[in-house]
Amino acid sequence: MNIISCNNVVKRFNQFTALDSVSINVPRATIFGLLGPNGAGKTTLIRIINQITIPDSGEVYFNGNPIKQSDISHIGYLPEERGLYKKMKIGEQAIYFARLKGMSHDQATKELKEWFIKFGIQAWWNKKMEELSKGMAQKVQFITTVLHKPSLLILDEPFSGFDPVNVQLVRKEILDMKAKGTTIILSTHNMESVEELCDNIALINKAKLVIAGDLDEIRKNYGKNEVELLYRSTNPVLLQSNDLFNFVSEEEHKSGRRVVLEVNREATSSQILGELITKVDIISYRELIPRMNDIFIKLVS
Known about the structure:
With about 300 residues, this protein is α/β, with parallel strands linked by helices.
């Protein structure tokens, strides 16, 4: 069952159309990538799901029912524009946000201190927000977003401001929450994170839905059925096209030679390798599946 379904959602601001009949389905307990260039309509759709903005037409369903204001208590939202009170103490502010989500003071304090220890910021409990670096403040905002254990978590550029160590820390927490049943909508321009984390994606461009579906299927569908072969040799070995593959290109590689072959869709890897192993000393053989970055650029250009 889908936790979120948007059916033909339209939103206009005066003469500007932000969303033009956009329909997406977000399956439960998955990580759903919401992609698109700046100004495509992603943030507008997120605001509609959060009941911040009302669509001009179309329907949004939460767990199979028309979404209503009370459903927001089951949603955690980390916007790209961070919102923390600079003069307020960090611990007090975190408790305040937790209370807004229905947690008791004692429960919020206990769980916040556990999160602060996990994220290495326990010494900053009584510091003011303005004393924190961007990355430290980002940790606090992430914690306050997930503390009440929402069934749907919406993260807009969650890794901005983090160094690689903290990116890995937050990424691990996201995967742990998914494993426990949380659904995550991830809005980001980082295609590497999309490939590593997302199960499904939707790409919006100029207010319209361009493509949506299973990430791996989309990548395969945009591929050319090509493979990369690395073999040891200082000189090229002539590989002629046959019933199993067509020769595409060859170039020097630091380990030897790199060849790209377009393979017959009916041929198996065992058959192709059986043919190649009699001709070259193989280092590696892998399917060339296009990266999301290349697909993104192709679809929005």
